[in-house]
């Protein structure tokens, strides 16, 4: 039983134990008594009576009957007007309405159906016919609620699947340790950025970033401490990444890669220097390092103009060569 049915039926009721509930709206108390007597011998029918047209809609909303027997001619608000009122209220608009009237003209009946009535009986109807129609309309109504409920549950589970799918797609792009984009997403991103930059006649800058003497770090402080260093370095690199033009990813192991569509060759070098200084300034002790008492990185940068040809792979290889030069030249520096 979901929220939808709970709001259509009174609290705590399920469809199975929900009796057929009849609400008679008729200004004549004698009619009210007569219908009560007609239905008294039907144990599955729960009878309620309202003589005041002004409160009928409110009573229906409160009671949520499975069928409304609606008098046609009432002082003040007419029966047709009341039917229209039920139909305009989302909480009760689907409750079936059987019109009760002394009028037998086809035109009157036609008008009642046009206003939204489901059925029309001439007063006072025969007990067998009245109860048959009450049961028929109530059952149809309760079945409709059940279909709505099943449909809502289906929609809910479809939405849950969609959400799960979106979450999986998001996670599939991320590196588990650092939360940065992973290698797979980096490759995808660069393959898409390349033709985009070619079309816009923009340059693409790539910086390969590698933690210095990291094997020695692990050997000295342990692999778990090494993981913490990778996370701290990742946060620092991420800090310099502008989402509108840049992507920072974990390339693999202790290597990261930065790609930017907003850099000149000078910009690549400056960004590399900034990143080197920022990581060293973290002050993460590295007593086994041959470079510095703190953890440092080396950076290799390269710039390409995709409009002039080439491939993303050449750009990465160029940055990798520059990184090798930084390592050769003593580490904790940038080469372009
Ligand atoms: P260099 O300055 O030349 O880069 O020396 P290096 O020791 O950093 O380079 P090397 O390639 O010899 O070693 C890289 C080390 O990074 C070895 C490997 O165990 C470690 N490493 C790679 N991935 C991880 C990781 O996810 N966590 C930890 N703690 N260590 C990692
Ligand atoms: Mg009347
Ligand atoms: Mg390495
Ligand atoms: Mg290294």
Automatic annotation (TrEMBL):
SMART domains recorded? GGDEF, REC
PANTHER family referenced in this protein's UniProt entry, alphabetically: DIGUANYLATE CYCLASE DGCM-RELATED, REGULATORY COMPONENTS OF SENSORY TRANSDUCTION SYSTEM
Q: Which UniProt keywords apply?
A: Nucleotidyltransferase, Phosphoprotein, Transferase
Give the protein name, as stated in the record: diguanylate cyclase
Q: Name one GO molecular function term.
A: diguanylate cyclase activity
Matching entries from PROSITE patterns are given as: GGDEF, RESPONSE_REGULATORY
Q: Which domain of life is it from?
A: Bacteria
Q: Where in this chain does the record put each GGDEF domain?
A: 202-336
What reaction does this catalyse? 2 GTP = 3',3'-c-di-GMP + 2 diphosphate
The record's section on Pfam families has: GGDEF, Response_reg
Where the record annotates domain Response regulatory, the positions are 21-138
InterPro entries with a match to the protein in the record: CheY-like_superfamily, Diguanylate_Cyclase, GGDEF_dom, Nucleotide_cyclase, Rev_trsase/Diguanyl_cyclase, Sig_transdc_resp-reg_receiver
Q: What is its EC number?
A: 2.7.7.65
Q: Which organism is it from?
A: Teichococcus globiformis
Q: Which residues carry this modification: 4-aspartylphosphate?
A: 71
């Amino acid at each position: 039983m979901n929220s939808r049915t709970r709001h259509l039926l009174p609290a705590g009721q399920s469809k199975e134990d929900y009796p057929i509930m009849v609400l008679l709206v008729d200004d004549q108390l004698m009619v009210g008594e007569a219908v009560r007597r007609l239905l008294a011998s039907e144990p599955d029918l729960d009878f309620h009576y309202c003589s005041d047209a002004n409160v009928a809609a409110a009573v229906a909303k409160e009671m949520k009957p499975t069928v409304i027997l609606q008098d046609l001619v009432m002082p003040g608000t007419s029966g047709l007007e009341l039917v229209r009122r039920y139909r305009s209220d989302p909480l009760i608009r689907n409750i079936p309405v059987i019109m009760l009237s002394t009028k037998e003209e086809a035109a009157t009946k036609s008008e009642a159906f046009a206003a939204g009535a489901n059925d029309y009986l001439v007063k006072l109807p025969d007990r067998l016919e009245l109860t048959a129609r009450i049961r028929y309309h109530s059952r149809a109504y309760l079945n409709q609620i059940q279909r709505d409920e099943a449909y809502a549950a289906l929609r809910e589970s479809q939405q849950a699947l969609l959400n799960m799918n979106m979450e999986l797609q998001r996670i599939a792009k991320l590196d588990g340790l650092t939360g940065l984009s992973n290698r797979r997403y980096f490759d995808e991103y660069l393959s898409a950025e390349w033709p985009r930059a070619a079309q816009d006649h923009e340059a693409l800058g790539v910086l390969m970033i590698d933690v210095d003497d990291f094997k020695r770090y692990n050997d000295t402080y342990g692999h778990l401490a090494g993981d913490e260093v990778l996370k701290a370095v990742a946060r620092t690199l991420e800090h310099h990444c502008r989402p509108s033009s840049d992507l920072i990813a974990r390339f693999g192991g202790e290597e990261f890669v930065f790609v930017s569509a907003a850099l000149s060759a000078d910009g690549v070098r400056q960004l590399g220097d900034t990143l080197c200084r920022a990581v060293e300034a973290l002050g993460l002790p590295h007593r086994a390092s041959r470079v510095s008492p703190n953890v440092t990185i080396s950076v290799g940068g390269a710039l390409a103009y995709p409009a002039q040809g080439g491939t993303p792979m050449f750009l990465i290889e160029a940055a990798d060569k520059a990184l090798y030069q930084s390592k050769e030249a003593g580490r904790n520096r940038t080469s372009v």
